[in-house]
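Case study B.
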Amino acid sequence: EIVLTQSPGTLSLSPGERATLSCKTSQSISSSYLAWYQQKPGQAPRLLIYGASSRATGIPDRFSGSGSGTDFTLTINRLEPEDFAVYYCQQYAGSPRTFGQGTKVEIK
Amino acid sequence: EVQLVESGGGLEQPGRSLRLSCAASGFSFDDYGMHWVRQTPGKGLEWVSGISSDGRFTDYADSLKDRFTISRDNSKNSLFLQMSGLRADDTALYYCAKLGVNGVYDFWGQGALVTVSS
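Model:
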């Protein structure tokens, strides 16, 4: 099973700042089968990024993903009030699909 | 508009069974694989099971394959999860999720809460 470790656990930032979230995998992921989801309280996760760097439909361009192998990053430029949420990475390179434990982006 | 609506959750005693349903609409259901993912405060998001678009192929988390069964009825645009031998650690919010063409979950339901307790 591929283990995903996200850091930091919590990121305290102000609106307008940049958020940089890390996701490290225990094994190299081929073809960048890495996704990022956003989850707000009381809501289901929402797909942001797939293939490590491709934005899902309707996702603003302030969200960007990068990385390969075992190290991946989600960057949120110019945080908007609606961006404060929990973010999860997920690998879908193999079974079982696994998720990171999440990074909470909170208002400073 | 894609909609996934789970039902069938509730309070059940340890050792009993429960069947979750997911009603899908807004897309061609029989063209897409479907999965179940559960979430708990302690363990976060955990993949449970997946099924191919035609129902021929299924996959399960190793720890659940002996107790959970995924199925679908394409004539009724419905996905199911039969859970047996329920345990306290099965307590979770269970989401059904649509598998997109890129292999990721592009739509999720709002979840069905399952509580296992005596």
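The beta strands of chain A are 4-7, 10-13, 19-29, 34-39, 46-50, 54-55, 63-76, 86-91, 98-99, 103-107. The remaining cases will be described in the next quarterly update.
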